[in-house]
Specification:
Layout (H helix, E strand, L loop, with lengths): L2 H19 L3 E7 H5 L8 E7 L13 E6 L2 E9 H9 L5 H4 L1 H4 L2 E5 L1 H16 L3 H27 L3 H22 L11 H4 L10 H10 L3 H21 L18
Parallel strand pairs: 2-4
Antiparallel strand pairs: 1-2, 1-5, 3-4
Helix pairs in contact: 7-8, 7-11, 8-11, 10-11
Amino acid sequence: MDHESKVKVAEEIGRILGEKFGKDILYGFLSGSVARGEDTELSDLEVVFVTKEKIRIPGMSSDGYREFMYKDLQVQIEFRAKNETEEAVVAVGPYWPIEVAYFLNPRIILGDKESAQALASVFRKRVDNLPDSTFQRAAGHSLLWIRESFHKVLNACDEEDEIRAVQSASGMCDEAAKFVALVNGRYYYRADARMSEESKSFSVLPSDFHLLLKKLTLARGIDEIRATATGLWSTCKALAGSEEVVIESYESLKNLKLEQ
């Protein structure tokens, strides 16, 4: 299905949901490759609806997703309550760099465009005003996720399970890309391997970052995967040290922070 046809399907879905829920849906917008105008005949359609309160429809997951086929088009719709959207915009963590962009620059297909863009403008200002400490703390959390992925790579290599090592290495590359975005206080427009290309515009990067990402993505064989993953982990740790990013850690659980 071509781009314009996908947009028309999204608008029709919006019309049907608008008739069903009325003003309980504040607005709907495109997400993914269709929103960017980069979709192909094989691309799916992703549409997000921001609602006044939490709404779930039959067949929808607890976190608000429902997927189905419409003719030859795979469709995903997502319901996000306004308060959930507001939280997602400022709750900076390891997922934030690949989630926030569409809420800040929505391509509206349902609802009052002026009101929706005004709300998006408020969201952008909130992101612009996030303190460096928020990103520094989130980068520490993200570094912990890189560590977890790295250990999965090592476990797979120790067991000489190359397929699992390749899979874990791919996950490690994704976590490393999100980490560097947080270190720079930035986010991505594409939540896939093209994050690496986008990150080339960042001012602060680990040494040999893009080379190591490419090598680890293409690495085959236990020794090469282990060595390259070790190199990527080392260079991310080095950047964390230079940027004063730390992993939350304790020597005694009595000191565990439980307050906001």
